[in-house]
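User: Predict the complex.
Assistant: Input components as received:
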Amino acid sequence: MKFKDATHLFRLAGVFAAGLLLFVALRSFLVPKSFGQYGHFRGDALADIKAQPVHYAGHEACESCHSDVLDQKVKGKHVRVNCEACHGPLATHAEDPGGITPEKLDTAKLCVRCHEANTAKPKWFPQVVSADHSAGLACNECHQPHNPVIVAEEKTASAGEGPKPAPANKGAKK
Amino acid sequence: MNITRRHFLVLLPAAALAWEHVLAGTPELSSNYNTSDHWWGMLVDIEKCIGCGSCVRACAKENNVPDGYYRTWIERYRIKEVNGLETLEVDSPDGGKNGFPSSDEPGVKQFFVPKMCNHCADSPCTQVCPVGATFVSPDGVVLIDEKYCLGCRYCIQACPYGCRFLHPEKNVAQKCTLCYHRITQGLTTACCENCPTGARQLADLKNPKDPIHEFLRTHKVQVLKPHLATQAKLYYNGLDGAVR
């Protein structure tokens, strides 16, 4: 059997071929180069996400200058509490120590974030009812935040002007 | 140019090194972080969590999370008996950002559960994305390509842990990135950095020196919704069976 009037089939094939070519050309133009580099996503997205600025410098950065604070911390219970957990995000200060100075902290608000008594907190964690515990005194009147244990000698040494004796753990839970 | 076989053999390794150097690009531009050397996860120790909200605040500041949305949050579970039946109450005021009010009820078991993306190795959220905008990175972190995300919300519904949200202004899905910008430069995540009791610990499962391996060997850790077989990498120690 002989095909008659086959030219329209060739024309159709031509349209298909042109369509395919257009698709391939558009695809190579529209799909980013890095798509599929690691999987079904844009490989460059990893670099985009990595480029986000850091706000918390990390305790190693703090300790590289403030080694004196580290020396105090290693003696006490707060040794594993990292600097920025209390002092806030200070990557800007780590980059420009002279230009940006961290704010002074309000221990009356800060300490109770962790140490206010709450029945849902694990029993091993030191907790106080702040209203009963310090009679309105700021925490750092008695406790030195970097090493919070109250040392008797320190109290007597500076008894003249500063810290008043703690109200004997009144209101302390465990 | 005349090169003897001896000379050729001597020059061959040098040429190979030079070619490798060319392929690697400029040393200053290529970071020494290699994605194939890491497989990230996290360990949460329920017995250490005090519900202070430091992680939630740190996450919000580090990642500019809009108010009212959370990439990580803390839930308080209260399990009590009512008419002989165990009933569960869960609350999370403002994601636990400012801690929790104390509730003195006798005979109630209470504890905190920090939650965030589980960084599943076989994640339902990445499977449903129609455009390849969310994916598991080669180092095991579930991420979102904000330039590719259409904001169709499919992944938000697919996440069995409720860890995704639609950013109200950018109109793209967002979630915990495991602080990818930090861990790839040797820092820990913002939540781990700021956890005062060490209840959260970043873990590199491909690093044989990471303490996580010792911990996983000696503790019976759990993941959330193990029956979904998502291969979650957020391990919980001391998790109560009531936690969903």
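The two ends of chain A are 101 Å apart (CA to CA).
Let me know if you want any component modeled separately.
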